[in-house]
Every structure is written in C-alpha cells, then in structure tokens.
Protein 1
Amino acid sequence: MLTPTDPRGRPGMRLLVGQLTEAGFIGAPLWPDRSIYRVGDDFLALVSFAGCAVRIDPTGQGEGPWCRVGIPRPSARARPCLGRNTRAPRCHECRSRLEDWPRRLELWHSQPRSGWRCDGCGVVRPPWGWDWGRRGGFGRTFVEVEAVFPGEAVPTPALLDLLTRASGLSWRYFYVQG
C-alpha cells in the first residue's frame, strides 16, 4: 500500500495514473471503472521482491498469485487503511503504545476532527499523527499492490521518486492484510 506521507494530500489522479502507466508500473485497466490495473511491463523493475523465487501472475491466468494494482478514487478526507496485521501505534514523542486504538478509531469515525491524547505524555494529535509503522496508515489516495504478502515486496526508490514527481507529494508505504 502506498499513500502520500501527508494523509490529507490529494494528487491529481489523471496525472498520477498517466505517469504510472508511462513508467510501466501499471498496464491497462481491468474493468471499465478504471480503478484496478494490470501490472505494467516494468512493474518488477519498480518493486523489489524478497527471495529468489518470485512468482506473480500479471494476467490472472497462470499459477502464481494474480498481482494487480488498485488506484481507487480519493476519499473526501483522510481515512484509515488498517488490517488484521495492524498493531497499536506509538507516540512519536514518548513512544508509548496506544493500546485502545480500536475504540478511539470507532469514536473518531463519528467525530473526525478530534485528536487522540497520548496516555504517556499527554500530546494530542490526529490518528494519522501516530507511528503506525509499516502495518497501517491513513490517506485520501492509495496505490494498492494486490496479492503480495506483507513484507514480500518493497517499492524501489525509483517508484517513490516517480510518485513524488507525478504528485508533488512525498509518499510512504506499508502493508495491510485484509
């Protein structure tokens, strides 16, 4: 999962998709809604896979996992992207864990302008202002590499540079298991 570092950032989607297509990261859209794409011819040059026997299927017709890239429409405001592998985020100031984050997240959905107070040092910040590590994050815009196990692949510096040039925003990545 890739998203701008500032979760409130919203890049121009036409330019972003155009640049990702031109660079060979994504190929043709799979369905008319144009939110899920085939991997492009240079996908494997822009994503570094761990291990020596990488098996992905770019077509959905072969033997490996069917790898594709989702680029859903941006949401109106920052939203969470969390999964069963998400762990309690840490405070950037004192490194305390926010163990009750699921309850706070549920409340935040009804009051999205509220911040979360750290039990360790008292600092208040929005949910995306906590250190979620590589197991979750917030954003309005996401680039989702589907059918890749968490930690199995890392975006190359070239891909992160491409996203930055195409959007004018810095990007981060993390892994979410559904």
Protein 2
Amino acid sequence: MAIGAEHVRLFGIDAPERDQTCDRGGRPWACGRDATRALNALVGKARLVCEVQDRDRYGRAVSICAAGETDLAEALVEQGAAVAYRRYSLRYVAAETRARARRLGVWSGQMVLPEAYRHGTEAESGGDSGAESGAGAGGCVIKGNVGTHGRIYHLPGQTDYAATRINEARGEAWFCSEADARAAGFRKAQR
C-alpha cells in the first residue's frame, strides 16, 4: 500500500496477489482483489499510524500499521484476507488460527499460498491446515507433532515426514525454522 509517497508492506502477513484467484467449491474467486478491498475498507478515511520494523529488498517500509485502534495486519488475517507470514513473525498466528477455524476468506476453500504464487510454485493451502500440500500457512514446512514420544519436529526428507499430519487443535504446528520449533518446546526427530 502507499501512504503518501512511501510504499509500505504490512509486517508479519502475506496476502494474495492482486491478480490471484482462489478456489471455493470448484469455482474461482478473486481472492487477491478481495484482499485489496478488505484493506481499503479497514483503512477508510482513518488516520494511519505506522511503525517501521524493517525495509524489504524493494525499499518498502515493512511496518505495523494501525487505523485508529485497529492493527491492520491482524484484522486482515482475522478476516481470512491474508495469512500469518511465519517466516518473519509469529505475531498473527492466533488470528490466523481463528480465521481457519471459522473457514473465513482464503480458508473457505483452496488457495496457492501468496509466496508460492509469486514464485510460480503450486504449494496449496486451505481449511485442512495444509496437511495434503506439504506446507503450512506462510509456506512453512517443518512439522511440529505431538505424540507418545513428546513434542517432535520433522524436517522434509526425514523418515516420518510424509506420514505426519498436523492437527493444530492438539497443539501441533508448522514452523519456518528449527529455531522456532525448539523455542516452542519441540525437539528434532531422530530419523
């Protein structure tokens, strides 16, 4: 989005690209345009306050922005208009979990994750926690499993990776890095 002459990217989330379509019940819908409309509706004529966290490789200010008391990124994720971008932050994971549970927005069907769409890959996600696609929201691929042997994370290529399914209701999770998995109390699978 643009605020005056400054180009801003919302911190901690990834939204469908403007021209991206998603699938709902076998029918395409313009989830990218819907995400843009959702952002415009949240901003309205409110005064925006943004706190720059970083600059991306395109020079955009990666920021946490609020319209009044509303954190724009959190509201977009809560509506299902964007996903938590776990590669960079876990700040909006709880909002995404609520949107997924209610099957809102992009969670009401199938979508190619925005990052995968930009790179031309086919990592899909949807209301199934990404189990069939091999990637969680934000493209995270490390599987944090809770079982009889405790809290274990599995990396792609390990023996039990393909058979491991993630059930977030049981405290299982997707992680973007081994450090994130360890910080959440998971240990690496031995095989």
